[in-house]
Amino acid sequence: MSARELGDVARAFKALGDPTRLAIFEFIRCCGANVEMEGDSLDDCQVAQTCVGDICCRFEVAASTVSHHLKELRAAGLIHLEKRGRWVFVTADEQVLGELAGFLRQTTQTARVETVR
Which domains can be identified in the chain, with CATH numbers? Predict the structure, then answer.
C-alpha cells in the first residue's frame, strides 16, 4: 500500500475509534440508512423511518455532538452527504468499507503466513 492509502486507512480507523461515532456509523450503515437532515440543523429531520433526533436519543448525545460525529465520519471518507432541496441525505460509503475490509483481510492473511513460518 502507498503512504497515501495507508493514511486514508488510518483516518478511517481513527474516526471509528470513538465508540459513539462507531455506533452512529453502524446505525447509518445498517439501518438504511438514508438519514435525512433538514437544512444545516440536526434538530428537525426525517429519515426513511428514523431521524437524526432519534440518533440523539438512541445514543443519548446532543444534536451538536451528532453533528460533530457526522463531520468526522465525512472527513474520514466513511459517509457521503447529499443535499436535495432542504434535506441532506447521509449514507455510508460502501467502497471505502470494501477497501477497509480488504485491508483487514490482507493483514490477517499476512499474519497467518508469518505464523506458519
Answer: 3-116 (1.10.10.10)
